Amino acid sequence: TCFPPTEVAISNISTDQADLNFTPASSGDPSWYMMLKDLTTNITDTTQIFTFPHTLLNLTSNTNYSVSIMTDCGDGSFSDVTNSVTFRTNCLPVSVPYFENFSSSVVTEPTCWTRREGFLADTSILITSTSGWAHSTTLDTAMRFNIDASTDKHWLITPPIDLGDGSIQYQVEFDAVLTAYASAPSNPPTYDSDDK
Length: 196
Known about the structure:
Layout: E1 6-11, E2 18-23, E3 31-38, E4 43-49, E5 54-56, E6 64-72, E7 85-88, E8 94-95, E9 114-117, E10 127-128, E11 134-135, E12 143-144, E13 154-157, E14 161-162
Parallel strand pairs: 8-14
Antiparallel strand pairs: 1-2, 2-5, 3-4, 3-6, 6-7, 9-10, 9-13, 11-12
């Protein structure tokens, strides 16, 4: 009889790898079996590992995974399996020119756009948010945000963009429009000169 590891954690997540760490139940545990499940394909890969931390390699970018571990007791038996820990790999940078017309929601998972919340300052820390920005239901080619207080602090952040080696200058442009609360722009929208 042996026991499963504790404090299973994932760190150093990139586009194609991540580090798995845990605390063994005993210093004498000979090895562990890791079950890595791709939550898109539902394919589970089982690997015997002998050291930790262990680096998970050849992952797919922008993909949700779950990982669980059991201890090899060394006598042909195994411990119970740990609870699963889930994580998502990072997105690959998009290439320029890059265009997004918001014909569908960019905040529906899996997405490389992120929503964050917080005030901008010299030492800002923006926290992950699931509120604020939403896909427009009145104008299907927009993301919207209701500004109803001076404390509103929601951000919609693009995927990483690969600007190359810096030898070419690029320009970023966004179209924005401010309308009264609960009203939609005309179709097609008309803008004041300061809306673009």
